[in-house]
């Protein structure tokens, strides 16, 4: 009986030691969750695993905003450590944005992940939304667009009317014509144009009693040119007149009057 009890105790101790050895051996052989590397992170599938025994594999992928340049990102657990990753990740390049109507992009630093570019519109258009675009993991972010500039509907003038009958507001470079009722004369610009600032280039005219004439820039310009031309011709004529007079005086100073000398001699002999 005593011999059997000693054998039983020995077996129990042996089994306990064996279990401890196996536990220590397994613990030493397992790997922890990989930490990743430069611009790399473990995949979602890797993060959801509970253990990584000897010889098991884990996968790394490029971090947000980076794309794979080379390598596979596969790691292997060996001796409780992960092998070095062969994955190389570089910043995502969004490239030059696609052209949009009446819009211009100004690139200052680049088109890589995190870079920002400025957005401007052509003359007569204004930005609607953000005035910049940013390169993110999914591409360019920003929803700005260029809308044409509009002016308020033209004011109505007393005793007159405008040519604008649309329900929409006048747009950039569109013009409005004014006219007066019978018995009234238009004073001011007969036509106003919507400018790039969203304002008209001149105030609306007035319709007044009396003989006034609407200002016509083209007629005024022609009148100024005509007056200038006539003035130049008059000045040139005066200059030529005095030049001719001076020339005649010079010729007279060299006239010896030889044809009068015989008569003078006869007069002296008397």
UniProtKB/TrEMBL annotation:
Signal sequence region: 1-29
Domain of life where this protein originates: Eukaryota
rRNA-binding keyword on record: no
Pfam family, one: Sushi
Transmembrane segments: 222-244
Domain Sushi, chain residue ranges per copy: 29-91, 92-148, 149-209
SMART domains: CCP
PROSITE patterns to which the protein is assigned, alphabetical: SUSHI
Disulfide bond entries: 62-89, 151-194, 180-207
SUPFAM superfamilies hit by this protein: Complement control module/SCR domain (SSF57535)
Keywords, in A-Z order: Disulfide bond, Glycoprotein, Membrane, Repeat, Signal, Sushi, Transmembrane, Transmembrane helix
Name used for this protein in its record: Complement decay-accelerating factor isoform X4
């Amino acid at each position: 009986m005593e011999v059997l009890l000693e054998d039983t105790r020995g077996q129990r101790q042996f089994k306990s030691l064996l279990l401890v050895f196996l536990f220590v051996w397994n613990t030493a052989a397992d790997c922890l969750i990989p930490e990743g590397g430069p611009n790399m992170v473990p995949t979602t599938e890797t993060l959801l695993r509970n253990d990584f025994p000897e010889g098991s594999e884990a996968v790394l992928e490029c971090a947000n905003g980076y794309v794979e340049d080379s390598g596979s990102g596969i790691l292997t657990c060996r001796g409780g450590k992960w092998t070095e990753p062969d994955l190389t990740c570089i910043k995502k390049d969004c490239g030059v944005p696609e052209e949009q109507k009446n819009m211009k992009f100004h690139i200052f630093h680049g088109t890589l992940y995190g870079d920002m570019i400025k957005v401007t519109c052509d003359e007569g258009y204004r930005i609607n939304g953000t005035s910049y675009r940013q390169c993110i993991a999914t591409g360019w972010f920003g929803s700005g667009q260029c809308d044409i500039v509009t002016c308020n509907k033209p004011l109505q003038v007393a005793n007159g009317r405008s040519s604008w009958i649309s329900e929409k507001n006048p747009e950039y470079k569109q013009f409005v014509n004014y006219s007066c009722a019978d018995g009234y004369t238009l004073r001011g610009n007969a036509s106003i144009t919507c400018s790039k600032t969203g304002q008209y280039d001149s105030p609306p005219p007035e319709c007044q009693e009396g003989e006034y004439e609407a200002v016509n820039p083209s007629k005024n310009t022609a009148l100024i040119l005509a007056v200038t031309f006539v003035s130049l011709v008059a000045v040139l004529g005066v200059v030529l007149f005095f030049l001719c007079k001076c020339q005649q005086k010079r010729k007279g100073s060299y006239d010896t009057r030889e044809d009068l000398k015989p008569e003078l001699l006869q007069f002296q002999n008397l």
